[in-house]
Carboxypeptidase (Jaapia argillacea MUCL 33604), 461 residues
Amino acid sequence: MSSYDEGLFTPLGSLNALSSDSFTTLGHPAFPNYNVRVKKSDFCDGTVGAYTGYIDIEARHLFFYFFESRGNPDKDDVIFWTNGGPGCSSSIGLFMELGPCRVTQPNDTSFNPYSWNSNANVFFIDQPVGVGFSYAEYGEYVSTTEEAAKDIAAFVSIFFENFNQFKGRPFHMAGESYGGRYIPLFASQIYDQNAQLVEAGLAPINLKSVMIGNGLTDFATSVLSYYDMVCTGASVDPIVDISTCVRMKQAVPRCQKLMKKSCIDMFDPISCDEAMAVCGLELQNPFHATGKPLISKDCEGPIQETLCYPVTKAISQYLSRPDIRSLLGVDPSIPQNFSSCNHAINADFSLAQDRLHPTYLYIAGLLERGVKALIYVGAYDWICNWVGNERWTLALEWSGQEEFGSEGLREWIVDGEVAGKTRSAKGLTFATIAGAGHMVPYDKPKQSLELVNRWLKGVKL
């Protein structure tokens, strides 16, 4: 079969061909409605190449950052990262958690020795449109993960086709929080799209794994586990009074029955919404009343302004600076005051009931096709806690279920100290990170990097 490469397409070849003064526009005849604008943007990590740009999907434009590996960029794996929300910018992941630099004050960045680009080339993407520096024209928007997945899969293919230095490299898709919903669908879209690429004579994406941190992959187990997190010693001593815990305990089987009937066995939008409202009232509200973002500490600043982490305000101020925007190539249409999270997009996804659709089934599908999955969770997180994540991994129906379930939790060690607990079998790994909350790479950077490096090397925790 003839290839698109035969006379119809000439790849750019290398990132070194890019200019720092203006965007280079990339496309591919296999994706006629998509283009990628990219430029060299030396910032954040002075030791490696840094690049920024936009994925243009007709009237929708997704902003991304790309950093080469500090190790061996010509051979190292490629990691794709997205934050969650839905509606939160991956600048949080970049400048606060796992990126090459951290922003702790508006006027400067500091080198992050524990960045995930220590041994990998890493993408950070603002998605869906309307998040961070991404934007849309003519009122277009995305309100479901299924819609967003098509855009991400096309972008990944265009990038690898144009920069053939990365062709065939092991590719890993990672995300946090609502990334537990995003990543399984994004990765599945890329895997399924590979068949079309091969048919067109193009190289398939070498998708190796998904990595999900504190993910919302099964909403039902997350909700039901709220009792365990605040009323038992699952991570810390109980933090809610006894009478409230008794009421929560009584609500657990009722909520399980309601969600199974209306949200899982047969999805009934109205009844499922009602079930979630009742269960939220009984199982979520008692924790919200404590004013804590984590089960281990109080919120720092108003959650709407800081996400309970004041450093997010410094990041927003840094990305509001005109000189930084010019350096990155941010479109002039983006509002001057940068916002880490877009609450309107969050509302759109909620109205579409996006989080209530089954996501763990995509993990099973990937595992059956040889794509590995790492599910890691900060032990102190509440919203997407380790108890709920462990439960869905154990309940997941796939060919490795019995072997995975027969493995007991064991400690994993970093520099002679216990970093958490883990179990692994047949390509699926579950791990907790002791002392970490919802943002593991921020709370435990050294352990986070060790986790990722072992995963990339195929070494057991």
